[in-house]
Amino acid sequence: MQKPRPYTPGLHRSAMRHLRRSDPIIGAVLSRFGPHRFELDTEGTHFDAIARAIVSQQLSVKAAATIHGRFRAVYEAAGGEARSMTSITDERLREAGLSHQKIAYIRDLARHVNSGALDLDRIDEMSDEELIARLTAVKGVGMWTAQMFLMFHLGRPDVLPTLDLGIQKAIQRAYGLRKLPTAIRMEKLGRSWAPYRTIACWYLWRSLDQPAISRGASAARKKSKRSAKG
Q1: Which secondary-structure segment (H or E) carries 48?
Q2: pLDDT score of 224 more than 80
Q3: What whole-number distance in Å separates Cα of residue 42 and Cα of residue 198?
Q4: Complete DSSP assignment for 153-214
Q5: Other Cβ atoms closer than 10 A to 44
Q6: Are 192 and 23 in contact (CB under 8 A)?
Q7: Exposure b/e, 116-154, CB count within 10 A at least 16 = b
Q8: Domains of the chain, each with CATH number or no CATH
Q9: Which residues are catalytic?
Q10: How far apart are CA 139 and CA 24, in angstroms?
Q11: Contact 191, 152 (CB under 8 A)
Protein backbone atom coordinates (compact mmCIF):
# COMPACT_ATOMS: atom_id res chain seq x y z
CA MET A 1 0.00 0.00 0.00
CA GLN A 2 1.30 3.42 -0.97
CA LYS A 3 1.83 5.73 1.99
CA PRO A 4 -0.69 8.63 1.94
CA ARG A 5 0.80 11.96 0.92
CA PRO A 6 0.37 14.88 3.33
CA TYR A 7 -0.53 18.38 2.22
CA THR A 8 2.51 20.48 1.24
CA PRO A 9 3.06 23.67 -0.79
CA GLY A 10 4.40 21.57 -3.64
CA LEU A 11 1.36 19.33 -3.61
CA HIS A 12 -0.87 22.41 -3.57
CA ARG A 13 0.76 23.75 -6.74
CA SER A 14 0.32 20.38 -8.45
CA ALA A 15 -3.32 20.35 -7.34
CA MET A 16 -3.95 23.81 -8.79
CA ARG A 17 -2.55 22.78 -12.17
CA HIS A 18 -4.52 19.55 -12.22
CA LEU A 19 -7.83 21.09 -11.15
CA ARG A 20 -7.60 23.89 -13.71
CA ARG A 21 -6.95 21.38 -16.49
CA SER A 22 -9.51 18.80 -15.42
CA ASP A 23 -12.56 20.96 -14.65
CA PRO A 24 -13.08 24.46 -16.08
CA ILE A 25 -15.73 25.31 -13.48
CA ILE A 26 -13.49 24.44 -10.55
CA GLY A 27 -10.68 26.20 -12.42
CA ALA A 28 -12.76 29.37 -12.47
CA VAL A 29 -13.43 29.06 -8.73
CA LEU A 30 -9.68 28.69 -8.11
CA SER A 31 -8.93 31.74 -10.24
CA ARG A 32 -11.15 33.93 -8.07
CA PHE A 33 -8.89 33.39 -5.07
CA GLY A 34 -5.43 32.84 -6.54
CA PRO A 35 -2.78 30.45 -5.21
CA HIS A 36 -3.94 30.63 -1.62
CA ARG A 37 -2.31 28.08 0.67
CA PHE A 38 -4.54 26.67 3.37
CA GLU A 39 -3.27 26.28 6.91
CA LEU A 40 -3.91 22.98 8.64
CA ASP A 41 -5.10 22.69 12.23
CA THR A 42 -2.22 20.57 13.53
CA GLU A 43 -2.29 21.79 17.12
CA GLY A 44 -2.32 19.03 19.72
CA THR A 45 -2.13 15.27 19.40
CA HIS A 46 -4.30 13.09 17.17
CA PHE A 47 -6.32 12.07 20.24
CA ASP A 48 -6.87 15.70 21.17
CA ALA A 49 -7.97 16.59 17.64
CA ILE A 50 -10.56 13.80 17.57
CA ALA A 51 -11.76 14.66 21.07
CA ARG A 52 -12.06 18.31 20.02
CA ALA A 53 -14.24 17.28 17.08
CA ILE A 54 -16.51 15.35 19.45
CA VAL A 55 -16.70 18.23 21.91
CA SER A 56 -17.58 20.66 19.11
CA GLN A 57 -20.63 18.77 17.88
CA GLN A 58 -23.80 20.90 17.89
CA LEU A 59 -22.06 23.81 19.60
CA SER A 60 -21.12 27.29 18.48
CA VAL A 61 -17.43 27.88 17.76
CA LYS A 62 -17.06 29.98 20.91
CA ALA A 63 -18.80 27.50 23.21
CA ALA A 64 -16.87 24.58 21.74
CA ALA A 65 -13.54 26.35 22.24
CA THR A 66 -14.38 27.13 25.87
CA ILE A 67 -15.47 23.59 26.76
CA HIS A 68 -12.61 21.98 24.86
CA GLY A 69 -10.15 24.23 26.69
CA ARG A 70 -11.53 23.07 30.03
CA PHE A 71 -11.50 19.42 28.94
CA ARG A 72 -7.93 19.70 27.70
CA ALA A 73 -6.78 21.21 30.99
CA VAL A 74 -8.32 18.31 32.92
CA TYR A 75 -6.99 15.76 30.45
CA GLU A 76 -3.45 17.11 30.47
CA ALA A 77 -3.41 17.40 34.26
CA ALA A 78 -4.22 13.69 34.39
CA GLY A 79 -1.32 12.79 32.10
CA GLY A 80 -2.33 13.89 28.61
CA GLU A 81 -2.69 10.38 27.14
CA ALA A 82 -5.62 8.19 26.17
CA ARG A 83 -5.07 5.96 29.18
CA SER A 84 -5.31 9.04 31.39
CA MET A 85 -9.07 9.04 30.81
CA THR A 86 -9.50 6.16 33.25
CA SER A 87 -8.38 8.40 36.12
CA ILE A 88 -10.78 11.25 35.28
CA THR A 89 -14.23 11.00 36.85
CA ASP A 90 -17.44 11.71 34.98
CA GLU A 91 -18.16 14.40 37.56
CA ARG A 92 -14.96 16.24 36.68
CA LEU A 93 -15.77 16.04 32.98
CA ARG A 94 -19.29 17.31 33.64
CA GLU A 95 -17.79 20.26 35.51
CA ALA A 96 -15.73 21.01 32.40
CA GLY A 97 -18.98 21.31 30.45
CA LEU A 98 -19.25 17.95 28.70
CA SER A 99 -22.64 16.27 28.36
CA HIS A 100 -23.16 12.67 29.47
CA GLN A 101 -23.29 11.63 25.83
CA LYS A 102 -20.02 13.32 24.89
CA ILE A 103 -18.31 11.87 27.95
CA ALA A 104 -19.37 8.41 26.71
CA TYR A 105 -18.04 9.22 23.24
CA ILE A 106 -14.63 10.37 24.49
CA ARG A 107 -14.34 7.37 26.78
CA ASP A 108 -15.12 5.09 23.83
CA LEU A 109 -12.42 6.90 21.83
CA ALA A 110 -9.95 6.24 24.65
CA ARG A 111 -10.96 2.56 24.75
CA HIS A 112 -10.34 2.17 21.02
CA VAL A 113 -6.93 3.82 21.34
CA ASN A 114 -5.90 1.88 24.45
CA SER A 115 -6.95 -1.46 22.93
CA GLY A 116 -5.07 -0.79 19.70
CA ALA A 117 -8.23 -0.86 17.59
CA LEU A 118 -7.36 2.74 16.66
CA ASP A 119 -3.57 2.88 16.64
CA LEU A 120 -2.79 6.59 16.55
CA ASP A 121 0.91 5.86 16.03
CA ARG A 122 0.06 4.18 12.70
CA ILE A 123 -2.25 6.85 11.35
CA ASP A 124 0.25 8.10 8.78
CA GLU A 125 0.55 4.58 7.37
CA MET A 126 -3.20 4.02 6.95
CA SER A 127 -5.10 4.67 3.75
CA ASP A 128 -8.00 7.12 3.90
CA GLU A 129 -10.48 4.24 3.69
CA GLU A 130 -8.90 2.23 6.51
CA LEU A 131 -8.57 5.24 8.77
CA ILE A 132 -12.16 6.37 8.21
CA ALA A 133 -13.38 2.84 8.99
CA ARG A 134 -11.45 2.78 12.26
CA LEU A 135 -12.54 6.29 13.25
CA THR A 136 -16.23 5.70 12.54
CA ALA A 137 -16.11 2.58 14.74
CA VAL A 138 -15.81 5.01 17.67
CA LYS A 139 -19.14 6.14 19.14
CA GLY A 140 -19.85 9.74 18.23
CA VAL A 141 -17.45 9.82 15.26
CA GLY A 142 -19.43 9.75 12.03
CA MET A 143 -18.28 9.93 8.43
CA TRP A 144 -18.31 13.75 8.35
CA THR A 145 -16.25 14.06 11.55
CA ALA A 146 -13.74 11.50 10.29
CA GLN A 147 -13.39 13.30 6.96
CA MET A 148 -12.88 16.67 8.63
CA PHE A 149 -10.10 15.10 10.73
CA LEU A 150 -8.42 13.79 7.57
CA MET A 151 -8.78 17.07 5.68
CA PHE A 152 -7.88 19.65 8.32
CA HIS A 153 -5.69 17.84 10.85
CA LEU A 154 -3.85 15.30 8.71
CA GLY A 155 -3.86 17.22 5.43
CA ARG A 156 -5.02 14.26 3.34
CA PRO A 157 -5.41 15.73 -0.17
CA ASP A 158 -8.13 13.54 -1.71
CA VAL A 159 -11.21 13.63 0.54
CA LEU A 160 -14.71 14.55 -0.70
CA PRO A 161 -17.21 15.13 2.15
CA THR A 162 -20.48 14.46 0.36
CA LEU A 163 -22.47 14.91 3.60
CA ASP A 164 -21.25 18.48 4.10
CA LEU A 165 -24.03 20.99 3.43
CA GLY A 166 -21.55 23.75 2.61
CA ILE A 167 -19.94 21.69 -0.15
CA GLN A 168 -23.37 20.73 -1.46
CA LYS A 169 -24.41 24.39 -1.66
CA ALA A 170 -21.11 25.46 -3.22
CA ILE A 171 -21.39 22.80 -5.93
CA GLN A 172 -25.00 23.72 -6.58
CA ARG A 173 -24.06 27.35 -7.12
CA ALA A 174 -20.86 26.76 -9.07
CA TYR A 175 -22.50 24.32 -11.50
CA GLY A 176 -25.84 26.11 -11.73
CA LEU A 177 -27.85 23.17 -10.40
CA ARG A 178 -31.53 23.57 -9.56
CA LYS A 179 -31.28 21.35 -6.49
CA LEU A 180 -28.60 20.36 -4.02
CA PRO A 181 -26.54 17.56 -5.56
CA THR A 182 -26.87 14.02 -4.33
CA ALA A 183 -23.85 12.14 -3.00
CA ILE A 184 -23.76 10.12 -6.22
CA ARG A 185 -23.67 13.26 -8.35
CA MET A 186 -20.99 14.82 -6.15
CA GLU A 187 -18.86 11.69 -6.48
CA LYS A 188 -19.30 11.82 -10.25
CA LEU A 189 -18.33 15.50 -10.46
CA GLY A 190 -15.39 14.91 -8.13
CA ARG A 191 -13.83 12.14 -10.19
CA SER A 192 -11.96 14.62 -12.33
CA TRP A 193 -10.66 16.42 -9.22
CA ALA A 194 -8.92 13.31 -7.86
CA PRO A 195 -6.34 12.97 -6.39
CA TYR A 196 -6.87 16.52 -5.09
CA ARG A 197 -10.51 16.58 -4.01
CA THR A 198 -9.66 18.11 -0.62
CA ILE A 199 -8.09 21.15 -2.26
CA ALA A 200 -11.10 21.54 -4.58
CA CYS A 201 -13.38 21.47 -1.54
CA TRP A 202 -11.34 24.07 0.32
CA TYR A 203 -11.91 26.47 -2.57
CA LEU A 204 -15.58 25.54 -2.84
CA TRP A 205 -16.05 26.41 0.83
CA ARG A 206 -14.36 29.77 0.24
CA SER A 207 -16.62 30.43 -2.74
CA LEU A 208 -19.63 30.57 -0.40
CA ASP A 209 -18.26 33.84 0.99
CA GLN A 210 -18.63 35.47 -2.42
CA PRO A 211 -22.00 37.14 -3.21
CA ALA A 212 -22.10 36.28 -6.88
CA ILE A 213 -20.43 34.07 -9.44
CA SER A 214 -17.74 35.67 -11.58
CA ARG A 215 -17.92 35.99 -15.36
CA GLY A 216 -15.08 33.54 -15.66
CA ALA A 217 -16.96 30.88 -13.74
CA SER A 218 -20.13 31.57 -15.73
CA ALA A 219 -18.26 31.18 -19.01
CA ALA A 220 -16.60 28.02 -17.77
CA ARG A 221 -19.98 26.61 -16.82
CA LYS A 222 -21.36 27.23 -20.32
CA LYS A 223 -18.24 25.70 -21.87
CA SER A 224 -18.59 22.65 -19.65
CA LYS A 225 -22.26 22.20 -20.66
CA ARG A 226 -21.37 22.49 -24.37
CA SER A 227 -18.65 19.89 -23.95
CA ALA A 228 -21.06 17.56 -22.17
CA LYS A 229 -23.58 17.85 -25.03
CA GLY A 230 -20.88 17.18 -27.59
Answers
A1: helix 46-55
A2: no
A3: 16
A4: II--S----TT-HHHHHHHHHHTT-SSPPPHHHHHHHHTTTTT-HHHHHHHHHHHTTSSS--
A5: 16
A6: yes
A7: eebebeebeebebeebbebbbebbbbeebbbbbbbbbbb
A8: 9-39+160-229 (1.10.1670.40), 46-154 (1.10.340.30)
A9: 164
A10: 40
A11: no
Of 108 and 216, the one with more pLDDT: 108
- The type of residue at 216 is G
- Rounded to 5 degrees, what are φ and ψ at 42? -100, 10
For 194-209, the pLDDT digits (tens) are 999 999 999 999 999 8
pTM over 0.90: no
The dihedral built from the CA positions of residue 125, 126, 127 and 128, taken in this order, carries a sign that is: negative
Residue of 26, 32, 68, 25 lying closest to 48 (CA atoms): 68
Please answer whether residues 196 and 14 qualify as being in contact, where contact means their C-beta atoms are separated by less than 8 angstroms.
yes
The verdict on whether omega for the bond into residue 195 sits within 30 degrees of 0, i.e. cis, is: yes
